């Protein structure tokens, strides 16, 4: 019998409780509700979603769970953040960590910048203390609360800094242009101030992004990007760089990705992320394995055109991934090596 997606959070919680492999997830959900409040956790439903994109999906590796948490930042109930939590199959026993993504476009009166978005995205991928500010993930231990508190801390710092910046700008403006006292009814209103702009993310030296031609189907658009990498630490930087592009950031699924590179001692470092498009990251990872390409990150962006594409969307994601590999010459290099091997 096919699994029916829950309609509300209560049925979502019951669905987790009914599955032995999700018992730890259910307990963690109840703990989060007791900490942040009954109404702070909710289902996540992207615009282009069906049962395969729901909050609970059983893929080839196990159950994947996604939900949203609204976390307060200040005493002002209007100043909150909404974080999308994505749990990998077999969490918390999985070797993969959860992924946290900030869904806010604004925090209070301030527009969220790419730097803050990237820091949240790197919560479990950054180096943990004492050398970094990331959150360590240990297989077997639930970690969402620690991740959310980390995100709340950096968002509080960001919000406070922007508030101070606005106050300083206002004080400087008033000192430079003192105004005579006038009745409040005739005093012109000042335009809303914007936070000081931050420097854009800089790509690591030597990084080149190869982009495929768009694939368009029923107004949905798919574009692939391939990047040669040798250091896994460059991956979140590249993803953050792409998300700074306004067009990419508006995609329904902006950074579906997979990577595969050589590790120490002949090992292979590889992983993938669906970015809300169920099993899409795994399909790109499978493509990299079939093509046997190494030291590459592939990112596919998908803009939803208003019509559900069904299984066709996976065909287009795979084609966009292959196209950008061809643009970057990764497949030519592989074919050249294969031809050289045959000549020997």
TrEMBL record:
Cell location: Cytoplasm
Boundaries of every RWD domain copy: 27-158
Gene3D superfamilies: Impact, N-terminal domain, Ubiquitin Conjugating Enzyme
Residue ranges with Low complexity bias: 178-188
Cellular component per GO, a single term: cytoplasm
UniProt keyword Repressor, yes or no: yes
PANTHER family xref list: IMPACT-RELATED (PTHR16301), RWD DOMAIN-CONTAINING PROTEIN (PTHR16301:SF24)
Protein name: Uncharacterized conserved protein
UniProt source species: Phaffia rhodozyma
Highest classification ranks of the organism: Eukaryota, Fungi, Dikarya, Basidiomycota, Agaricomycotina
């Amino acid at each position: 019998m096919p699994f029916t997606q829950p309609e509300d959070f209560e049925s979502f919680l019951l669905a987790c409780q009914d599955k032995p492999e999700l018992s730890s997830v259910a307990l963690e959900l109840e703990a989060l509700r007791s900490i942040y409040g009954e109404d702070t956790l909710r289902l996540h439903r992207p615009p282009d979603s069906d049962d395969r994109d729901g909050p609970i999906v059983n893929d080839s590796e196990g159950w994947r769970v996604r939900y949203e948490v609204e976390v307060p930042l200040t005493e002002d109930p209007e100043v909150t953040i909404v974080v999308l939590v994505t749990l990998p199959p077999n969490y918390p026993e999985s070797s993969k960590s959860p992924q946290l993504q900030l869904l806010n476009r604004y925090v209070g009166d301030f527009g969220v910048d790419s730097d803050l978005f990237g820091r949240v995205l790197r919560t479990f991928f950054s180096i943990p203390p004492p050398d970094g500010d990331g959150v360590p993930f240990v297989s077997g231990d639930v970690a969402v609360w620690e991740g959310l508190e980390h995100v709340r801390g950096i968002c509080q710092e960001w919000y406070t800094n922007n508030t101070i910046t606005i106050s300083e700008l206002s004080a400087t403006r008033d000192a430079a242009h003192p105004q005579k006292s006038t009745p409040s009814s005739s005093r012109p209103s000042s335009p809303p101030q914007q936070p000081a702009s931050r420097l854009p993310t800089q790509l690591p030296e030597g990084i080149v992004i190869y982009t495929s031609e768009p694939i368009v189907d029923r107004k949905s658009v798919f574009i692939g990007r391939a990047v040669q990498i040798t250091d896994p630490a460059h991956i979140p930087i590249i993803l953050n760089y792409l998300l700074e592009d306004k067009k990419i950031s508006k995609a329904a699924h902006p950074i579906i990705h997979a990577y595969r590179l050589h590790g120490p001692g002949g090992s292979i470092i590889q992983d993938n992320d669906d970015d809300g498009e169920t099993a899409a990251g795994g399909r790109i990872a499978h493509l990299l394995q079939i093509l046997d390409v190494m030291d590459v990150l592939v990112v596919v962006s998908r803009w939803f055109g208003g019509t559900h594409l069904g299984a066709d969307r996976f065909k287009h994601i795979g084609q966009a991934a292959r196209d950008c590999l061809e643009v970057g010459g990764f497949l030519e290099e592989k074919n050249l090596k294969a031809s050289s091997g045959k000549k020997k």
